[in-house]
Amino acid sequence: MSELIQLANPNQRPPQLKPEDLTLRFSEQAVKELEALISHYPSKKSCILPGLWLAQREYGGFLSGEAIAEVACRLDRSFAEVQGVATFYSLYNTAHQPGKHKLEICTCLCCHINGAWNLRDYLVKKLGIRHGETTSDGMFTLEEVECLNTCDRAPAMQVGSEYYGPLDEKQIDALLEKLRNTQESTVVQYAADVVSVQLRNDEK
Ligand code: FES
Q1: Residues enclosing ligand 1, CB less than 6 A?
Q2: Domains (ranges, CATH) in the chain?
Q3: Which of 34, 57, 111, 116 could form a Cys-Cys staple with 191, CB 3.0–4.6 A?
Q4: Rounded to the nearest whole angstrom, what is the distance from the C-alpha of residue 116 to the centroid of ligand 1?
Q5: What is the pLDDT of residues 27-60, one digit of tens each?
């Protein structure tokens, strides 16, 4: 006789994470910032996206499982729900720890017509990495992205909060050199910039 298999109730959500089960890493300042961000919304659920930006800053630019779990815990949501949101948007780094600088080269139509693929190939050769990969020194991650909405500067690239273009090989060389000598991670700085924009109204 076959055994009955107990199916999960589809209306039953996975249990929420408890702080005691996690190592929480948000700084005191980040906890306060999250409270301020939560106050902008009618419910904690609405604060998942800002909470993830905060976590991306606090966790060095990478939303690891622990980072997602901390956001879920602090917003009283399930891990699955927050992970589902985080992995939907390409601006969140959920696949792997990115390099100190993420080179997001646009290969969409305007940039394509203006030589983006040649520049992409130049970067691949110069850095020895392909799409989605990071240099062995952890300095650069290369990503091909869709339109950056700066088509007037095609071929264009985004690094952190900055847009560069129209680019040629010489300018790419100069930009890489400048980034190599930059102290801060533009990946972390980008997350910090987004958080500060979201908090701006609180400063008035
Ligand atoms: S097509 Fe590259 S920025 Fe729009």
Answers
A1: 106, 108-111, 147-148, 150-151, 154, 156
A2: 19-95+190-203 (1.10.10), 101-184 (3.40.30.10)
A3: 57
A4: 9
A5: 999 999 999 999 999 999 999 999 999 999 999 9
